[in-house]
């Protein structure tokens, strides 16, 4: 044993008999900036050789925690880092500092390898014969641990680390090679895991244009052969039964993956053999006698990365595609015959869904216009709110915005009165982030609607997250519950649920009765759009109703939807006199014509629901008909002005 030097011509051997080397089994070597050679031995500590003299450091004469020195690394400050069987040690040429599982973030005291990146971070590879350990990153202040449970590291016994010119970290383990890339993913090459352990995987159903499912590992349970990876659950429909849904249901392929030996993965129903070679056959679904065959292995570019892909043909005609580094990239929908396709890793590669910070990230100068409706026993009002962002403040907890606002209301009193009013104002928006904020939820996740009462069971009201493209606002939107009531809706169509028992997985849909939802009382829905915040909310109970809807916005100088000029919002008649209560307008709703009765000479003006002038008429008879056949269907405001006062009527064009 010992150490050998080769100068490309001659060999020189150093051992415990002819040099100061304390032990002939040498496990690690490093050379410092002064040209000194450092040798880590199995049971003799560390030996320093300056080409003339030998100096030995061991657990008896220094701070070295153990004489089995498995790795050595040098940082740019000249510090020496040693990995031993009982922790790591730093030597600054004067003092020793020891790191172990009791005083640091090392996941295991057996440190087999150390590497230092260009930023000065120290990477420690640890692990014992039981496979307990992983990789620890130390930035001189904080420790971050990566293992097979929270990342794509193939195995927790890490024997070697190397860092390439692009900053990627390469980890050699007892069960394969792992690469920690610049974008923060550990690519577990050679393992073919069906899921990327530390990422949220975004899938799109083949009949959809948006992400339909987001799957991630929710928890991990270690087993003798590997681990069980439990996946997040969602609200799921019951086929053929609209009245009920299940709130804690597996997504399309499984509730969990159980890792066995040699690339075998077991779910409740399926068996995947991810390490099998071309032509391999096995029973994929025993209950339905579905066979699987590795039909092809090829290279494909996935999210800009060239990767190996296995195409697994099933005997029922379906196909599974498995990527070496990105897990399952295609999986069948066994009900419809379609499939789910991996389209992104959330906030990392490919397609992502907006979260709180995407949704509420406004800019100074952004303009938003809302159409609100409010009703109570005293009357009702159609409100236009227009706000312009004037300042922005941001911190880790959320956003705060100052804004200038315009408030314009057309109101109607229960006794027949009404009018138009407006004012300007200044105020502040504050939005606070949280894990359970609805803007952070993913498709199918359950949301408890605040300030809502089902009137039965636990009285809780629930809805689930849906991802849709809002064509009216040209944005990707997260929607919960009811956006707006529609006529002709099929019974049990709305995604609004109540529970009878908190312990039961069953939720019940509210029933649609004669065009109206029978319950709940309170909040019924809410929605969010990417970079535009709240897009709608609606609530109501008996004779009370409050709805709000974003109808337009201006961002980066581009206008989307409806934006009413300030001059129009601020020049309507203010402080109306009481209108003439005897005036009647019928039929309402109307298709072609409306009749105005009890109205003397004056002016009739029609506005659409956004306040835009549509038409006006001079009226001179006590009963008059107005042709509205050319108007598009929707809500209109009829303003009648006479010498006796002003009347405002709401009309609906069918």
Break the fold down into its secondary structure elements and pairings.
Layout (H helix, E strand, L loop, with lengths): L2 E4 L4 E4 L11 E6 L5 E5 L4 E4 L4 E4 L11 E6 L5 E5 L2 E5 L4 E4 L11 E6 L5 E6 L5 E6 L4 E4 L11 E6 L5 E5 L2 E5 L5 E2 L13 E5 L7 E3 L1 E6 L4 E5 L2 E5 L2 E9 L6 E4 L4 E3 L4 E3 L7 E5 L4 E13 L2 E10 L4 E5 L3 E6 L6 E7 L3 E2 L5 H4 L7 E10 L2 E17 L2 E16 L4 E15 L13 E3 L3 E2 L7 E4 L1 E5 L4 E7 L15 E2 L7 E4 L2 E2 L2 E2 L3 E9 L3 E9 L2 E12 L2 E4 L4 H4 L14 E3 L6 E5 L4 E7 L4 E7 L3 E5 L6 E9 L2 E9 L1
Antiparallel strand pairs: 1-2, 3-4, 4-5, 5-6, 7-8, 8-9, 9-10, 11-12, 12-13, 13-14, 15-16, 16-17, 17-18, 19-20, 19-33, 21-22, 22-25, 23-24, 24-45, 25-26, 26-27, 28-29, 29-30, 30-31, 31-32, 32-33, 33-34, 35-36, 35-50, 36-37, 37-38, 39-41, 40-48, 41-44, 42-43, 43-48, 44-45, 46-47, 48-49, 49-50, ...
């Amino acid at each position: 044993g010992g150490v050998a030097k080769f100068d490309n011509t001659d060999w020189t051997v150093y051992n415990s008999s002819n040099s100061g080397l304390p032990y002939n089994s040498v496990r690690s070597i490093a050379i410092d900036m002064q040209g000194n050679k450092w040798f880590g031995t199995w049971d003799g500590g560390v030996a320093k050789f300056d080409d003339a003299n030998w100096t030995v450091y061991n657990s008896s004469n220094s701070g070295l925690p153990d004489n089995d020195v498995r790795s050595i690394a040098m940082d740019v400050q000249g510090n020496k880092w040693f990995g031993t069987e009982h922790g790591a040690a730093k030597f600054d040429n004067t003092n020793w500092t020891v790191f172990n599982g009791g005083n640091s973030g090392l996941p295991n005291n057996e440190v087999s390898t150390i590497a230092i990146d260009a930023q000065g971070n120290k990477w420690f590879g640890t692990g014992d014969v039981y496979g307990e350990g992983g990789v620890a990153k130390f930035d001189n202040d904080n420790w971050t641990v990566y293992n097979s449970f929270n990342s794509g590291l193939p195995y927790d016994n890490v024997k070697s680390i190397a860092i390439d010119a692009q900053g990627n970290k390469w980890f050699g383990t007892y069960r394969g090679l792992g690469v920690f890339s610049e974008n923060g993913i550990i690519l577990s090459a050679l393992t073919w895991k069906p899921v990327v352990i530390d990422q949220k995987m975004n899938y799109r159903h083949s009949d959809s244009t948006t992400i339909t499912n987001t799957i991630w590992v929710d928890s991990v349970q270690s087993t003798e052969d590997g681990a069980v990876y439990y996946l997040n659950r969602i609200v799921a429909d019951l086929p053929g039964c609209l009245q009920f849904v299940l709130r804690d249901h597996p997504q399309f392929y499984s509730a969990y993956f159980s890792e066995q030996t040699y690339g075998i993965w077991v779910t409740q129903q399926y068996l995947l053999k991810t390490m099998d070679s071309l032509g391999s056959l096995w029973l994929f679904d025993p209950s339905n006698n579905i066979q699987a065959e590795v039909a092809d292995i090829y290279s494909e570019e996935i999210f800009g990365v060239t990767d190996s892909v296995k195409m697994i043909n099933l005997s029922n005609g379906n196909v599974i595609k498995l990527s070496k580094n990105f897990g399952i990239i295609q999986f069948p929908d066994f009900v419809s015959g379609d499939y789910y396709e991996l389209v992104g890793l959330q906030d990392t590669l490919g397609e992502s869904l907006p979260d709180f910070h995407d949704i509420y990230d406004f800019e100074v100068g952004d303009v938003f216009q809302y159409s609100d409706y409010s009703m109570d026993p005293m009357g009702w009002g159609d409100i236009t709110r227009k706000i312009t962002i004037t300042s922005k403040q941001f911190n880790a907890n959320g956003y705060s915005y100052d804004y200038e606002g315009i408030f314009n209301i057309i109101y109607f009193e229960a006794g027949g009165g009404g009018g138009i009013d407006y004012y300007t104002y200044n105020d502040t928006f504050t939005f606070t982030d949280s894990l359970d904020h609805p803007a952070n939820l993913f498709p199918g996740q359950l949301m408890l609607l605040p300030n809502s009462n089902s009137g039965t069971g636990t009285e809780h009201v629930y809805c689930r997250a849906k991802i849709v493209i809002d064509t009216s606002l040209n944005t990707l939107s997260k929607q919960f519950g009811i956006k707006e009531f529609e006529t002709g809706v099929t019974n049990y169509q709305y995604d609004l649920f109540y529970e009878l028992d908190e312990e039961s997985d069953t939720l019940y849909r509210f029933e649609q009765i004669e065009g109206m939802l029978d319950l709940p009382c309170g909040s019924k829905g809410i929605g969010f759009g990417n970079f535009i915040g709240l897009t709608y909310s609606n609530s109501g109970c008996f004779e009370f109703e409050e709805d709000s809807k974003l109808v337009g916005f201006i961002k980066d100088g581009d206008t989307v939807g409806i934006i009413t000029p300030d001059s129009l919002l601020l020049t309507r008649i203010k402080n109306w006199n009481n209108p003439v209560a005897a005036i009647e307008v019928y039929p309402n709703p109307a298709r072609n014509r409306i009749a105005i009765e009890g109205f003397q000479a004056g002016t009739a003006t029609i506005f659409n629901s956004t306040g835009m002038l549509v038409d006006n008429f001079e009226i001179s008879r006590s009963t008059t008909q107005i042709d509205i056949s050319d108007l598009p269907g929707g809500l209109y405001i009829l303003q009648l002005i006479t010498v006796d006062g002003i009347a405002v009527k709401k009309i609906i064009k069918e």
